[in-house]
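Tutorial handout. Part one gives the primary structure; part two gives the three-dimensional structure as tokens.
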Amino acid sequence: MTGPASGLRADGKHAFAAYGLPGEPGTDAFWASARSPASVPTEGGGWVTLFLRRGSAASIAFESWSEPVPLRRWGGTDCWYAEVRMPARLRVTYRFLADGQAYADPLNPVGAGGDRSIAAPPDAPAHPHWPAVGPGDVLPVPRIRVRWAGGRLGGRRTVRVHPAGGGGPVVLLLDGDDWLYLHPAMTAFDSAVACGEMPPVTLVFVPARDRAAEFGCEPALWEAIRDELLPLVAESGVPAGRDRLVVAGQSLGGLSAMYAALEFPDLVSRVACQSPSFWWTPTSGGTADPLAGPVGGAVAARLRERPDLSGLRVAFDVGEHETRMLPHCELAEDLAGRAGATVRVSRSPSGHDRAGWRHALLRDVAWALA
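Part two.
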């Protein structure tokens, strides 16, 4: 809604008073107390969420949840805003897009890297252990690093290693750079271990160079992890037990984690995967709509062969708003259980978004180690 130029509604209150923002939009007093986003409940459930930006025209890009939403200008002021209807409990990453650039929300103290922010309405489940990180904050990184060079995959990678609680079973975090530089996984795992919610673990942040090639059910990746990376970790001086190794991955990383459990059972017997790309087939990358292929993709086809998964513990989590992903994941979840795996299934109030996967990551790694 766009109000009159004075910033007053017909009832005499300022435009955004319902959101707890008094004062005339665009004034210094208004900006001094402004916060974004702010939510109010809407009839029938869910929320209307106000986003504010001071400056010039822009739009809001939400991660895998909706189309971009343009901001509207309040009169002739420097106040740009959007009121967005959002479902209950949704936690979502967003960015402001202006002049071809992406920006975090300077009015939001919760970010994910330098150009992203996270919105969560009042009823969003808590994410204990994950500190609020602003766009200007620099996340701590593990002191220990190993150089992984050459070998089956070629090239060079820097792999960070962190002994949470002193170290223990290895937890491979696929897409490790995202968990280092966008979301403070090191801090979150330290907190969960200190609170007794999981045993001490050795986190190994595995960076990806070419996600589509490496995570697409690729044996070379897991041969290299088994024969090259894990020996390097063992030599790093950090306690790193492989007897209960956990692989945690999201999206294509979740696909790769499940593939490893199927094809490398002597290495991987515990998996935590969020929004795994179980639509994947060897030919899906060349199609206009990869999710329109066979339900469950290559993983479901392999599970129909009824491999013995009696030694596998696998936690599956998918976002409630990933409607097209759900059939693929539901079939794989069912087939894994029928093949003998110990299975945990949950749904996060999110889309295809690390902001929604964070809590599931801690919870499901702890369950896999139980």
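Part three, for discussion. The CA atoms of residues 193 and 199 lie 6 Å apart. The chain is about 25% helix and 25% strand.
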